[in-house]
């Protein structure tokens, strides 16, 4: 880690998320009455430290994507606070929020769906600059060319359209668009999941280079644990709308505390046939977030669950230095 | 010598498109022994799925066509079978499971109907027995209260359950060969672990050979006895799983293994990168198709295509670093 980054980390917390909740209503019947709620995110708290990469990991439906969008208010949170540089952004008006979005950008998973097929690459990357009225046309054009080179494309690509590019190249375009305004935070929502392994490593390296160069802070959402461990300084593990464990990436890999984290890591097939591991195979499926289990959400599948787990919902507590876990028995 | 269930020789499947001919599978040869799992790995577009669809003869035609080679299943060439005969083999002797269980199940029939249909079609049993067989199979694949679930529709089940149903259906006629095309790619890791565990169990019980197609090197390391690595329509390396992961020979295999973040090794500062991208299938480079991206490229690589050659017991590779150009039969290559 570079000295610059170390220094930035000393500056502490860039974004502080507390008790973030997002319920999606389920409507039904003749008058579309609300008949239930999907508790996508249910009381999630974490800090995003300046210059770090915080990985959010979990299986489908755990709420990691909703969390990523809610902290940018691309989805309005149901409750909770999100402090960005000390200011609670959940209280801001739409207009104030729009101005603040310069500081927070997002990269999406699907490099096919997230680029407008009718816009040229130049227009796509220039758009955020236009919206935020940055520079005149000439300056913007120069910036676009510069950005293309920064992400490893050529400046002559500026007039081409998204369909002319491969998946990896499109993801580079998405990254160029995200860093165009020199944001402080980038939420990367499964940025490499749709890519082949040989392309995946190119994009991961690019994202690391950009982080060092521009002092970016990443909230990196992925379900691939090997990717998460590689890129993250710290990792948060989510299960059914709740954060169950958060610690440094080496710590969480070598010393997972939550039984879910343990099972998750042990379930990943490792490309080394000589390693024989103890595998914890969880029984059953993830319960529905419409009607999550009482108490600890994981108790229905947990190998060490006790009576207490069925009634008492554990809160995230620090059980080692900077290692937080939500479990009664760990 | 173990019995060869499947022996594919010089299989070529091409797609004739408006823009030109795509050689999706180009002179591919491999075999699967009885009760063996062969892993086929490669990135998107390398031809691994087209290979499996060719075996089943499910290639959409036009534009696709099997233009050459033999597919010997228990010694008989499937390419000379009539479509009537193929129908009898498909689902009965060779079964297939796909990546997306939702699109492979019919949403308007109960899962019991769908499994029983396959059984009635291929085995000499009446409907009642077939239904009983469906219940048994669901129990076999670990679906709780199968007597009840057998009457449910696909949408009432989770992704992992649906994949179990697909497996139950595939195994219901006790096939000799199961082709599994990315069977766990759409599933979460904890569910993937359950399904892989189930496949291992069924293989033991039913003595089935498995052709496992995947892009996940971890899944291959865990499941396969032997591995074939594909790149741009060709097999570039084939060996036992242990040898391949311990000492990959082809630069592409090496690059692939180096570029994945490894959980079994200390975190690296920087990931290895295979430069460039997969070549355009309409315009493949001359010589070795991997040459433009290869860190160890030599002059000969850009001129002559290396053939898959046995370099030691059970190890085959198509790379000029390991194959002596003098010994390579050149006439055939020059022609192709």
Question: Your description of this structure?
Answer:
The complex is a heterodimer of chains A (330) and B (336). Chain A has 330 residues and is of the alpha/beta class. Chain A contains 11 helices and 12 strands. Chain A has helices at 3-10, 64-70, 94-100, 121-131, 137-150, 167-179, 197-214, 225-231, 249-254, 259-267, 307-311; strands at residues 13-28, 33-49, 53-57, 79-84, 87-88, 104-107, 185-189, 217-222, 234-239, 242-248, 317-320, 323-325. In chain A, helix 5 (137-150) crosses helix 6. By secondary structure, chain B is α/β, with parallel strands linked by helices. Chain B has 2 domains: 4-93 and 175-335, P-loop containing nucleotide triphosphate hydrolases (Rossmann fold); 94-174, no CATH class. Chain B is 32% helix and 24% strand. Chain B has helices at residues 48-56, 83-89, 101-104, 111-122, 127-140, 146-149, 159-171, 189-206, 217-223, 241-246, 251-259, 330-335; strands at residues 4-17, 20-33, 37-41, 64-73, 76-77, 94-97, 177-181, 209-214, 226-231, 234-240, 309-312, 315-317. Chain B has an 8-stranded mixed β-sheet, sandwiched between helices. In chain B, strand 4 and strand 5 (76-77) form a beta hairpin. Chain B is globular, with a radius of gyration of 21 Å. Chain B: Keywords: ATP-binding, Cell membrane, Membrane, Nucleotide-binding, Transport. Chain B: InterPro entries: AAA+_ATPase, ABC_Ni/Peptide_Import, ABC_transporter-like_ATP-bd, ABC_transporter-like_CS, Oligopep_ABC_C, P-loop_NTPase. Chain B: It is found in: Cell membrane. Chain B: It comes from Sulfobacillus benefaciens. Chain B: Belongs to the ABC transporter superfamily.
């Amino acid at each position: 880690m570079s000295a610059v980054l170390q220094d930035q980390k000393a500056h502490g917390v860039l974004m502080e998320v507390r008790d973030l909740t997002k319920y999606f209503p389920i409507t039904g019947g003749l008058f579309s009455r609300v008949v239930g709620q999907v508790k996508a995110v249910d009381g999630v708290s974490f800090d995003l430290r300046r210059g770090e990469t915080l990985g959010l990991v979990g299986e489908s439906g755990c709420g990691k994507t909703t969390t990523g969008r809610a902290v940018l208010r691309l989805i309005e949170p149901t409750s909770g606070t999100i402090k960005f540089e000390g200011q609670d952004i959940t209280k801001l008006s739409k207009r104030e929020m729009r101005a603040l979005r310069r500081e927070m950008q997002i990269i999406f998973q699907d490099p096919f769906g997230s680029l407008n097929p009718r816009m040229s690459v130049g227009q796509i990357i220039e758009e955020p600059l236009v919206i935020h009225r940055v520079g005149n046309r000439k300056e913007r054009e120069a910036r676009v060319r510069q950005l293309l080179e920064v992400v490893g494309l050529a400046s002559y690509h500026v007039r081409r359209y998204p369909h002319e590019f491969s998946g990896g190249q499109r993801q580079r375009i998405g990254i160029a668009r995200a860093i165009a305004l020199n944001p402080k935070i980038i939420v990367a929502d499964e940025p490499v999941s749709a890519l082949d392994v040989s392309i995946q490593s190119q994009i991961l390296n690019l994202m690391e280079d950009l982080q060092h160069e521009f002092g970016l802070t990443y909230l990196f959402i992925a379900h691939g644990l090997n990717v998460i461990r590689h890129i993250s300084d710290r990792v948060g593990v989510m299960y059914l709308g709740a954060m169950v464990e958060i610690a440094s990436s080496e710590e969480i890999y070598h010393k997972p505390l939550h039984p879910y984290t343990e099972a998750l890591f042990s379930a990943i097939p490792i490309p080394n046939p000589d390693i024989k591991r103890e595998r914890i195979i969880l029984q059953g499926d993830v319960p529905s977030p419409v009607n999550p289990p009482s108490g600890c959400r994981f108790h229905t599948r947990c190998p060490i669950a006790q009576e207490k787990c069925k009634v008492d919902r554990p809160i995230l507590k620090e059980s080692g230095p900077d290692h937080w876990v939500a479990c009664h028995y760990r | 010598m173990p019995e060869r269930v499947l022996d594919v020789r010089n299989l070529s499947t091409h797609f004739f498109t408006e823009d030109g001919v795509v050689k999706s599978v180009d002179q591919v040869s491999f075999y699967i022994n009885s009760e063996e799992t062969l892993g086929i790995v490669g990135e998107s577009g390398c031809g691994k799925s087209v290979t499996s669809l060719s075996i089943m003869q499910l290639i959409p035609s036009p534009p696709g066509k099997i233009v050459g080679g033999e597919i010997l299943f228990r010694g008989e060439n499937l390419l000379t079978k009539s479509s009537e005969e193929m129908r009898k083999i498909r689902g009965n002797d060779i079964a297939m499971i796909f990546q997306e269980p939702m699109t492979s199940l019919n949403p308007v029939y109960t899962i019991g109907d769908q499994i029983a249909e396959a059984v009635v079609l291929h085995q000499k049993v009446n409907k009642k027995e077939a239904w009983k067989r469906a219940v048994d199979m669901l129990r076999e694949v670990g679906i709780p209260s199968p007597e009840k679930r057998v009457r449910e529709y696909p949408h009432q089940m989770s992704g992992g359950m649906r994949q179990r149903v697909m497996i139950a259906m595939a195994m219901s006629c006790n096939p000799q060969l199961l082709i599994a095309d990315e069977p766990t790619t759409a599933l979460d890791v904890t569910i993937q672990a359950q399904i892989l565990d189930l496949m291992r169990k069924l293989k033991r019980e039913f003595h089935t050979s498995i052709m496992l197609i995947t892009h996940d090197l971890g899944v291959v390391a865990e499941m396969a006895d032997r591995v074939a690595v594909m790149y741009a329509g060709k097999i570039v390396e084939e060996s036992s799983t242990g040898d391949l992961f311990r000492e990959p020979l082809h630069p592409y295999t090496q690059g692939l293994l180096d570029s994945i973040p490894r959980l079994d090794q200390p975190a690296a500062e920087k990931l290895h990168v295979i430069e460039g991208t997969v070549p355009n299938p309409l315009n493949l480079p001359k010589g070795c198709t991997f040459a433009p991206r290869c860190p160890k490229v030599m002059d000969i690589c850009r001129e002559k295509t290396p053939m898959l050659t046995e370099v030691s017991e059970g190890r085959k590779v198509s790379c000029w670093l390991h194959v002596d150009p003098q010994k390579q039969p050149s006439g055939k290559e020059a022609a192709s």
